[in-house]
Amino acid sequence: MLALFARDIRLNIRAGGGALTGVIFFLTVIATIPFGVGPDLKLLARIGPAILWIGALLSCLLGLDRLFQADREDGSLDLLVLGNDRHMLAVTVLVKCLAHWAGSVLPLVIAAPLLGLFMNMEPLGIGATALTLLVGTPAITFIGAAGAAVAVALPRGGLLISVLVLPLTIPVLIFGVSASYGATANPDPFLQPFLILAALTLFLGVLGPVSAALALRHGTD
What we know:
Blueprint: H1 2-14, H2 18-37, H3 41-62, H4 69-73, H5 76-83, H6 86-118, H7 123-150, H8 158-165, H9 170-182, H10 191-220
Helix pairs in contact: 1-6, 2-3, 2-6, 3-6, 3-7, 3-9, 6-7, 6-10, 7-8, 7-9, 7-10, 9-10
């Protein structure tokens, strides 16, 4: 499993500059917001956590179509599906999800504090938003694995994956933004939505790989 994890990280870094593409797209989204909102620094600081979360969410969707694509092209996906039972296939998918997150999504989390400065956010808000992104973005990858497994046989499944995955990520977005606001807004709590966000990630860490494994096995039958 460690060899698979290291292999997938290398593929994520090499394939089309996945990490760099996501960071550039993230930067583009954040940089265009002030042009639409205007020079109101207080407004930018107030909507900063939501904008960072939306930008990270959209950036996470970019590389999901590559989650199983390389394995399908070289035939190793069929070997993984046929050579493992249902539980081992789900564990394999989980490892691939973690590798995809580490190679493509973690750079977004690292870049988030710098982009928070563009939104005139306070240090506490920047730290809270980065923490919620660190905890919540794996859930997006786990959900995306199921969508990627459904669309793996399609030549251009990226749009379909986005359509399937985006509505399912709304609870993650809601609790991630709520926790980010709770760190800076006194009436709003931080701990409750943050714990719910962590619970969602753990729950989807089981449900997502299992659903993806079932979709992959059904797709090869």
